[in-house]
Design a protein that fits this description.
The protein contains 7 helices and 12 strands. The relative contact order is 0.21. This is ABC transporter domain-containing protein.
Length: 224
């Protein structure tokens, strides 16, 4: 599926292992990432364990560590530490295989100059019109499928719901959801899948109803 995160650099080519069979659990420990400018970021001594179907919220005061985590989980950047998917170290798996299992739903998701339907269908090109329409309905995106959109004409909540529709169409078993807009978005994203919710809103009124749907809430650093 199509995703967009702050990418530091492409992962170097190496021999890879086959994707293990599901259901998929995730474990992250001692994570450290070096950005191209030399800055080293990570999650400190925080360990994340997500059995299949678990809903975990990661609340951070800044975006650096959580952005690095998203880039690592999508295999867009190398890392130090331990990150396993189904018991296999993530660095030993091919990026394209990992992205068939893990998807990202973010507010800054990439939008191509095409129709809403074409943008959603990028997640699964063989999907028919009914499947695309169903994904749009479940994601709560009310724009007609034949509406022409681009980076300038769709933003905010609609852009994130476009990303959610892609994830629903791809039917990824693990979804990273960044700064969700409403409770409905969270419940839709979490249905029948593992959810890693990344948010920077815990101190903002209205965040508590979203977090109450999580099985676990992990706080990173000092909140503003």
């Amino acid at each position: 599926m199509v995703t967009q995160v702050p990418v530091a650099h492409d992962v170097e080519a190496r021999e890879t292992l086959p994707l293990p069979p599901g259901p998929y659990d995730l474990r992250v420990a001692d994570l450290r990432v070096q950005w191209p400018d030399g800055e080293i970021v990570g999650l400190g001594d925080t360990e994340l364990v997500l059995p299949a179907g678990r809903r975990l919220a990661l609340v951070g005061a800044g975006r650096v560590g959580t952005s690095a985590l998203a880039a690592v989980l999508l295999r867009f950047i190398d890392y130090e530490g331990t990150v396993t998917l189904g018991g296999v170290e993530l660095r030993d798996l091919a990026g394209e295989d990992v992205r068939r299992v893990i998807g990202l739903c973010a507010r800054d998701t990439r939008v191509s100059p095409a129709t809403v339907a074409a943008n959603v269908r990028a997640a699964r090109p063989d999907a028919d019109e009914e499947e695309v329409a169903d994904a749009l309905r479940r994601a709560g995106l009310t724009l007609p499928p034949d509406t022409a959109v681009n980076e300038e004409t769709i933003a905010g909540a609609d852009r994130q719901r476009l990303a959610l529709a892609r994830a629903l169409l791809a039917d990824v078993p693990i979804l990273i959801l960044e700064d969700p807009v409403t409770e409905r978005d969270v419940l839709t994203a979490a249905k029948d899948r593992t959810l890693l919710l990344i948010t920077h809103q815990a101190a903002i009124p209205g965040a508590e109803p979203i977090l109450r749907h999580m099985d676990e809430v992990v706080m990173l650093g000092d909140l503003p």
